Amino acid sequence: MRAAEVIALLSLITGTVVAAPLDDKLKEAEDYLRVDPSRTLKILNNIPTPHALTDVQQIRWHIAAMRASVFTGELKQIIDSIEAIFHHQTHPYFIDKLVTVTSGTGIWLRKHDYIIDAQISLECSVKYAINDRQRLTITNSLALLARQLDELEKAKALYSKAQKLAKLADRKNLLAIIENNQGLIALEEGRIERAEQHFRAALAGYQNIDKRSGQISAGVNLLFVFALQQQWVNFQRLYSPTETLTLAFPNEGKQALLLWLNTRFKHMHGEPLTVKEKKRLLDAYTQLDDDRIRKLVSEHLSTGMDMILPGFKKPVTKRFNRPWFEKVKRCDW
């Protein structure tokens, strides 16, 4: 009988709640990462005083929190956990999880426009990657970085390479991620029908593995192309299940885009915008994931809505300075 079953049986017999061992709770949080990362965060936050855990338990807690927060868009939790993990950078378990930590660091840096430092962190991840699964994940992150730098041909080449490797390794999760990201590139290039094909493939892939965060991302993106093509029957069919998932998931960026899409649908069907709705849209505009999404919304969804949206600031080169990041730059463990 497994430990969790023993605990449940004791609770039933005694009529009291018997606390699961911390390792079991951490394992439960880790098991939810793929299917429901918001549940992962809830489980972690119910573990009392994380700083009182053993070193290995603290590292596990923060790695799980970091990974879950990447999916839920809670960027502050990502950097807080990275900071905490680097307090243990000489611990053998940290070394064992180095690629996960540095690739997560690269993701946070990219999302905060520390482009040069994101590249450094991801290249460090490549150096210590020990299997194809890790190399595939890092390749995807490098492609996202290339897209952010408007190096779309480089990004497409990286995705094509990753896609071939993912098919050989039967990595269904990564195949869905790649399809979704290829769809975003096609959308930016104005190849709407091609974008739709990618987003449909991504959504089907995420549904097959029951990855809710992926279903939300691909679902919202597919709604976007349906709105562009005025495929309103398809839009309505997909909207309800996507809305249910999105509103139950703590990701402001996806919820903000969903609001824009639903308002666009109503506006195209003759509903005038109120002053209050315009205010909500302006607030949601600032909550979108990044300037690339804001640009797509500005170009395609705000048309005819009589709204003045904030302009785009020219990207500035900035560098990330934290004492622990010097070790990442040296990349010598």
UniProtKB/TrEMBL annotation:
<protein>
    <submittedName>
        <fullName>Tetratricopeptide repeat protein</fullName>
    </submittedName>
</protein>
<keyword id="KW-0175">Coiled coil</keyword>
<feature type="coiled-coil region">
    <location>
        <begin position="142"/>
        <end position="172"/>
    </location>
</feature>
<keyword id="KW-0732">Signal</keyword>
<dbReference type="Pfam" id="PF13424">
    <property type="entry name" value="TPR_12"/>
</dbReference>
<dbReference type="InterPro" id="IPR011990">
    <property type="entry name" value="TPR-like_helical_dom_sf"/>
</dbReference>
<feature type="signal peptide">
    <location>
        <begin position="1"/>
        <end position="19"/>
    </location>
</feature>
